Amino acid sequence: MEELIYPTIIESSVKMGTxxxxxxxxxxxxxxxxxxxxxxxxxxxxxxxxxDSGIHFEGASQNSKNKIKLEHFNESSELFIxxxxxxxxxxxxxxxxxxxxxxxxRGATNGKAIFGDSSIPVEKIIFSVPxxxxxxxxxxxxxxxxSTSYHRNRLEFENDKYLIKIDKCFNYTSLQSDLKSxxxxxxxxxxxxxxxxxxxxxxxxxxxxNCFNKFLSFVNGRRTSALFIQGIFKNEVQWCDYTAYxxxxxKYVKTxxxxxxIDGINKSWKKFNDLWQDKNDRNFLNxxxxxxxxxxxxxxxxxxxxxxxxxxxxxxxxWLIIEKKGLLLGNDAENIAAANKIRLLxxxxxINNNIPFSFTNLQSYLSSNKEAKDAPDxxxxxxxxxxxxxxxxxxxLALIDxxxxxxxxxxxxxxxxxxxxxxxxxxxxxxxxxSGATYLGEGDELVPWIKDx
Length: 453
Prior knowledge:
Number of domains: 3
Order of helices and strands: EEEEEEEEEEEHEHEEHHHHHHHHHEEH
Structural class: alpha+beta
Helix content: 25-40%
Radius of gyration: 26 Å
Distance between the termini: 40 Å
């Protein structure tokens, strides 16, 4: 019997052993420049997660014993290593206790932070992904000294130009346990991007990575990004982008992917990437995922998140029902009631207007409310009670308990997830947050537009 050959797990030189561990990038001499001055500093540059994620530096100036003013290095100032500009900087602190001593300087980069010459084409890109949920994937092999281990850790994403692979860290379980205990950030996946037509440059792949970050955030239910992006040529790091792309602090949230299956995710990534190429569609994807993530994280607590979720549903209605499908035209498209907008959207998804059986509190609210006929009515009435400030609306809101508000939010989030998956032509199984499932795998089911076919 022929032995199966699995690809080797992706790893990076950028390591984190514990949550929120600072990453040392450089130690030695670097130069701070503005329009008129130049300071040589002997110090350390590192990536810190707190109080703000990004590049921070500190060290003693080597060529100035005069008093340095903060404002001199807070406009158009830059950091250089080996005559290459890393990025723009601002200085946060200058300590000169004795005029006979060199000043001790602290500061941070502002925006892009790239070490090395990023114009060099490379064979592949290696990157890290923090705070990404646990997903089983394709098998990979890991060699460690004399031992060999196998893991179902790989996800693959492909478009016309690039192949992106991300591998869950071999010790993901212990990393996740530490992250739950301490909060914050930790690297949990390593990724690789290769070009289908040869070498790649950072400027060429940035738009694809921006798109990929947005897609991963939808998968994750919280924002995450490719970080510490290294250009590799002949197994050597040629440059590294240390820019602080957006990653949310760790927090458990529900989201739609199954744990044990990645079927259909690559197809949806291709559709997402295709939509990204059109400016109007890109704006839609950016906005709808923003509102989805904010509502899913309960950024405005549960009542504020209901408002965000209905904003997302309104956006989806306008983009999908009116702009793409053209089901309503003219004044009818604008004057339709909010509940009817949701009903029209649900009809495209093959979802009925009933409240899920597991949402007993929302069921009770509907039963006791003569004005509400179905789930869309209940959502709109509860949202209006939150938004509008009339005394009557405030009285109604005071009577709605937190469990009912929570179920309303979960129902809205389910509608949003189904709408985005429908747009991305996802035809597989997903986790239904409205199922009432109590253990892993119980709430997995086919998307509704496929389920009854």
